[in-house]
Amino acid sequence: MSTPVSKNIAIFGGNGFLGRRICETAINRGYNVTSFSSSGKKPWNASADDQQWIDKVNWVKADVFKPDTYKDHLKDKDAVVHSIGVLFENADYKQKVRSKDGIFTQMKNFFFPPTPVEKAPVIEKDSKFSYARMNVESAVILGKTFIEAKEKSSDGKAPVFVYISADKKVPGTNGYIESKRQAEKEVSELEPKLRPIFMRPGFMYDETVHDDARAKFKLLLSFANTVNNTVLVHSLDGIIRPIISTQEVSKWCISKIEDDEFHGPLMLDTMVGKDQKD
User: Fold this and answer.
1) Which pLDDT value is given to residue 40?
2) What's the domain of life for this entry (predicted)?
């Protein structure tokens, strides 16, 4: 295992829920961090604690579907993290889950469908935010652009491409996990010009951000995991999955970037310690 000498990293979606923690972890590990997003702005709900690292990140506006907006920035990067994508195929779901009880209401409807009298709101699909476009095409475009940017400045060592994938299918979504696996397959085909890493977390929570709705869902899943691990003796391991913090996923992400021999998927069970850590 070795650490990149220049330690330059680009994170697409670095102002998002997980992306910001990858930025933070990388900064704390001595990396030069550039975050790319459609707004180019810092996280919208940064806390006072975040100010210790947030101004050390280079926040850049870019469109992942338009390589000319970021290609030149990738020439000196050792690793690129793709932390963008959609869970639902509609344009405003991220705004909805940021509302007071948005994510809890949507997840509750998945596990406990409303009665015919109280119908759940219909999620209108938006072609611009389809799984194929946001979860697959964006990753392939970014991967190929990274290769092109590094071709003339290559030191013979394959640059690292991290794709934030997913552990299992999310109830209430059709095509989500399939798009994640398709993206993994297509990015894998770029090897050996890239060293691909596929992070497969499950439900994530932030250790420092107290979101009432997400906290409720975390409590529900934690209880289900406890029952599965003790009363049911792991009989529902394939259905009830462990939860993990964004901070823990970020630590694993940077750790595997620094491991020259690692490539391929990093499973949730490994990250939560069910498998022996390497």
Assistant:
1) 95
2) Eukaryota
